[in-house]
Amino acid sequence: MPTLIYVLNGPNLNLLGKRQPHIYGHETLADVERDSRTVAAEEGLEIRFLQSNAEFQIIDWIHEARETAAAIVINPAAFTHTSVAILDALNTFEGHVSEVHISNVHKRESFRHHSYISHRSDSVLAGVGTHGYVLALRHIGKVVREAAR
Ligand code: DQA
């Protein structure tokens, strides 16, 4: 059975491709999901690819992942910089947590330089565009294979 990975996307990422394309690029979230599914299949992973604008929904999905998933890829979007609640939820999860940011948050406004999520993240990818999702899944594939040895 393929190993299940949750790929969680926070607020405004449903508008990817239309939203500030000079920062976030022209790819849509559907494009990101397609590429993520291709790479996940190559790595022997199954993904649940989800997006919500609501903090509680992301927390509920993390709780769901606790029961079923080996890893979480999360782009918490603006909740990165505000949400102790998402950090607390991730702290209840025992598998690998990979934090993804399409933009290089450290090159941007100072309020984006702090991530509550990074207090828990095992890996962080920022500034490589939507390719960050693919790189996160490749890394998780390696982590899962090494754990099975
Ligand atoms: C983001 C960076 C955040 O600062 C921002 O609020 C987002 C997207 C990124 O992917 O670069 O919505 O997480």
Layout of secondary structure:
Elements: E1 3-9, H1 21-24, H2 29-42, E2 45-51, H3 55-68, E3 71-75, H4 84-90, E4 96-101, E5 123-126, H5 131-148
Parallel strand pairs: 1-2, 1-3, 3-4, 4-5
Helix pairs in contact: 2-5, 3-4
**How many strand segments?**
5
Q: From the alpha-carbon coordinates, what is the Rg to the nearest angstrom?
A: 14 Å
Helicity level:
25-40%
* Strand content bin: 15-25%
Spell out the helices and strands N to C: EHHEHEHEEH
Tag the structure with descriptive keywords.
38% helix; 5-stranded parallel beta sheet; Rossmann fold; alpha/beta; 5 helices; globular; 19% strand; 149 residues; binds 1,3,4-trihydroxy-5-OXO-cyclohexanecarboxylic acid
Describe this structure in words.
The protein is an alpha/beta fold and 149 residues long. The chain has a single domain (3-148), classed as Dehydroquinase, class II (Rossmann fold). Helices cover 38% and strands 19% of the residues. It contains five helices and five strands; from the N terminus they run βααβαβαββα. The protein has helices at 21-24, 29-42, 55-68, 84-90, 131-148, and strands at 3-9, 45-51, 71-75, 96-101, 123-126. Strands 2-1-3-4-5 form a five-stranded parallel sheet, sandwiched between helices. Helix 2 runs parallel beside helix 5 (131-148) and helix 3 (55-68) runs parallel beside helix 4 (84-90). The longest helix has 18 residues, at 131-148. The chain is globular. The mean pLDDT is 97. It binds 1,3,4-trihydroxy-5-OXO-cyclohexanecarboxylic acid (DQA).
